[in-house]
Design a protein that fits this description.
single chain, 149 residues, alpha+beta, ATP Synthase, domain 1, 2 domains, 5-stranded mixed β-sheet, 5-stranded antiparallel β-sheet, 41% strand, ATP synthase F1 complex delta/epsilon subunit N-terminal domain-containing protein, transport, ion transport
Amino acid sequence: TLNSFAAEPTGVTNRLLLTLGSPAESICVRKPIDSVTVPGYEGVFTLTNNHSLTVSMLKPGVITVREGSNTEEYFVSDGFVFFNQAKDDSGCCTAEISAVEAVPTSALDKDRATQVLSELLSGPKDTEWDKTKIQLGSALCNAVIRAAQ
């Protein structure tokens, strides 16, 4: 993981250290934060420092990163989150989020997502692949539409 090569934040204690990335980019590596809220397949949940060990698959939705009064939101298509306890005396636990795609919600285009959804729904529905493509594509487009600001 990226955490294996990241420099330790100096002077940081008892904080949640977030690593968030996709195959295309690393958004943050071991960034000290207050909490991160993720769209797990079993439901939306929030991780803070000293949470119980967690591994969860993510569904399309919004990840919210909170640090003091600042909030950052990212749309993820899917992925995984891994939460681990501190491995040293710092008391800093780690949350690693590996997403297939992750983009700031401000970059989402609701009109384009609506157009793609319309194209999907008006396409062929003859084969099982057609039906599966419509089902999966519709779920993703609807998640983008809900998350778009």
